[in-house]
Design brief:
The protein has helices at residues 7-11, 21-32, 59-72, 75-83, 87-94, 98-105, 113-131; strands at residues 41-46, 52-57. It is mainly alpha-helical.
């Protein structure tokens, strides 16, 4: 014979809190950019005998180092890290070669004004792209198509 659970028992069960993905992403970005310190920071060291030792670091000191490294990056590298893309995916998204992107990120060359504008448009439209991630970009597998969200010139049409 099946026993039914009383309604009061169901109401009193503990439900896990809903995960606020946007809030977690904002915190992660703040830690990666050096705006916010992590609660704990560890460094792993390999010892001569082959064992690994975990050393706890000062979170505030680590935050300052991360912020200094973030500010030292070029505008293009910052945009790519903000979008969380690999160099190859970002180069395909912009319609440029990987070598060009690398030279921009290393500071050897500067992007033109048109390229800077394209990067700014892609960066601002990226959040809206994930709202409609049902359409995928055929040129870059796994990336949402951005053309339906923003008016951006397609560099793929200029290629022979």
């Amino acid at each position: 014979m099946k026993t039914k659970t009383p309604t009061a028992a169901i109401k009193n069960t503990v439900r896990p809190a809903a995960i606020n993905a946007a809030g977690l992403k904002a915190k992660k970005d703040a830690i990666q950019q050096g705006v916010r310190a992590a609660s704990r920071v560890f460094k792993l060291e390999k010892l001569p005998d082959g064992t690994i030792r975990r050393v706890e670091l000062n979170p505030e000191t680590h935050r300052r180092q991360v912020k200094k490294a973030w500010n030292a990056q070029t505008e293009v590298a910052r945009a790519r890290h903000t979008l969380n893309l690999s160099q190859g995916a970002f180069a395909s998204l912009l319609g440029i070669s990987l070598a060009t992107l690398r030279s921009w990120e290393q500071g050897k060359r500067e992007p033109s004004g048109a390229a800077r504008m394209l990067i700014a448009i892609r960066r601002s439209c990226w959040k809206r792209a994930f709202l409609r991630a049902d359409t995928r970009d055929p040129l870059v597998p796994g990336l949402p198509r951005l053309e339906h969200l923003c008016f951006t010139p397609s560099l793929a049409l200029l290629r022979p």
